[in-house]
Amino acid sequence: xxxxxHQDQLEWWLGLADLLAEGTGHGFQKLQRVHLSIADxxxxxxxxxxxxxxWAKVVKHAHHGIARICYGSVxxxxxxxxxxxxxxxxxx
Length: 92
Known about the structure:
Blueprint lengths: L2 H46 L4 H39 L1
Helix pairs in contact: 1-2
């Protein structure tokens, strides 16, 4: 394999990593919306019942906060991979 072929192959793999990182970030953002929307359905039912209303609000708030942190962490990681791949591509 000559230098040009090696360079082309490296750029292909870096481009693939960039694409996957970008797709992962967007995919998890969509997944978060779906997850919270489905969870809201259950929490709305529990909030409509007077006996469960106070705890449902607390648990809903905690659930949504934890979910946002988890999905946000994955998104930040994907953005980091995207940025790293972009920097490497520019350097190569």
